[in-house]
């Protein structure tokens, strides 16, 4: 199999990420029937999706899942993010139609769509049972934890091209409750172990930053 589908889904997601960034920017202009930003800067959606793809493939390899299904789902899970709360359902439907037009195995398309449909939300009360869905869920949530979250959210704030201070960026720390609930909703052991490390790194980062900004790392008894 030539697997031209991979190039197709990457290009589709890249186009959607660029359009989303342009549509949310005050500097966006309409040219040749598509939104284009005068300065694209940091594209949070693209960075998030590529991170999810990396994590999903890692988990698929460890857990002996269908790597092609997981990768396709990871690339397309936020393809319709501009649809808001309904984006999981609309992205799943997009995947059904889009993959049908590529060389992606027809018998695996529904598994991709199910995984995408199941990724909605930041935590779950009931665990998923489909392995591809479990992996996409875990990869999506892991990408919102740890130092990855610090970098992605900082980039998102700066890309808005609005005045921001270091003190304002500290506000990204937010309440950790939703992150802890996400960790509790993870399905696979590798993801749960990684989440523990990421949560520790996340909290330690902000703690260390606040110490430095306050100058509390300057010891009074230093000779």
What is this entry, summarized?
This protein has 223 residues and is mainly alpha-helical. It has helices at residues 5-23, 44-63, 67-76, 87-100, 109-118, 131-142, 146-159, 166-170, 177-184, 189-214, and strands at residues 28-31, 34-37.
Task: List the keywords.
10 helices; Hypothetical protein af1432; two-stranded antiparallel ribbon; mainly alpha; 223 residues
How is this fold's topology laid out?
Layout: H1 5-23, E1 28-31, E2 34-37, H2 44-63, H3 67-76, H4 87-100, H5 109-118, H6 131-142, H7 146-159, H8 166-170, H9 177-184, H10 189-214
Antiparallel strand pairs: 1-2
Helix pairs in contact: 1-2, 2-3, 2-6, 3-5, 3-6, 4-5, 5-6, 7-10, 9-10
> How many beta strands in the DSSP annotation?
2
CATH class: Mainly Alpha
Which CATH architecture is right? Orthogonal Bundle
Please indicate the percent range of residues in DSSP E strands (runs of 2 or more).
under 5%
Succession of helices and strands: HEEHHHHHHHHH
Count every helix, treating DSSP H or I runs of 4 or more residues as helices. Answer: 10
Q: Which range best describes the helical content: under 10%, 10-25%, 25-40%, 40-55%, 55-70% or over 70%? A: 55-70%
Oligomer: single chain
In CATH terms, the superfamily is: Hypothetical protein af1432
- Mean pLDDT, all residues: 88
**Largest pleated sheet:** 2 strands, antiparallel
- End-to-end distance, in Å? 69 Å
- Strand order across the biggest sheet? 1-2
Q: Using only CA atoms, what is the Rg?
A: 19 Å
Q: Structural class of the secondary elements? A: mainly alpha
Low-confidence parts: 25-39
């Amino acid at each position: 199999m030539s697997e031209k589908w991979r190039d197709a889904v990457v290009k589709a997601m890249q186009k959607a990420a660029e359009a989303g960034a342009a549509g949310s920017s005050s500097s966006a202009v309409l040219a040749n029937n598509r939104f284009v930003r005068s300065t694209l800067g940091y594209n949070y959606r693209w960075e998030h999706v590529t991170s999810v793809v990396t994590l999903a493939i890692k988990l698929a390899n460890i857990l002996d899942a269908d790597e092609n299904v997981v990768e396709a789902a990871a690339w397309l899970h936020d393809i319709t993010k501009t649809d808001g709360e309904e984006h999981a359902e609309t992205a799943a439907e997009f995947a059904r139609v889009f993959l049908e037009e590529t060389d992606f195995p027809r018998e695996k398309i529904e598994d991709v769509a199910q995984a995408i449909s199941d990724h909605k939300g930041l935590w779950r009360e009931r665990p998923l049972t489909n392995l591809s869905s479990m992996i996409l869920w875990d990869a999506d949530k892991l990408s919102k934890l740890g130092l990855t979250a610090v970098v992605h959210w900082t980039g998102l704030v700066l890309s808005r091209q609005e005045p921001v201070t270091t003190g304002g960026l500290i506000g990204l720390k937010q309440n950790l409750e939703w992150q802890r609930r996400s960790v509790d909703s993870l399905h696979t052991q590798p993801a749960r172990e990684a989440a523990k490390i990421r949560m520790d790194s996340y909290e330690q980062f902000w703690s260390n930053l606040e110490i430095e900004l306050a100058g509390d790392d300057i010891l009074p008894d230093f000779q």
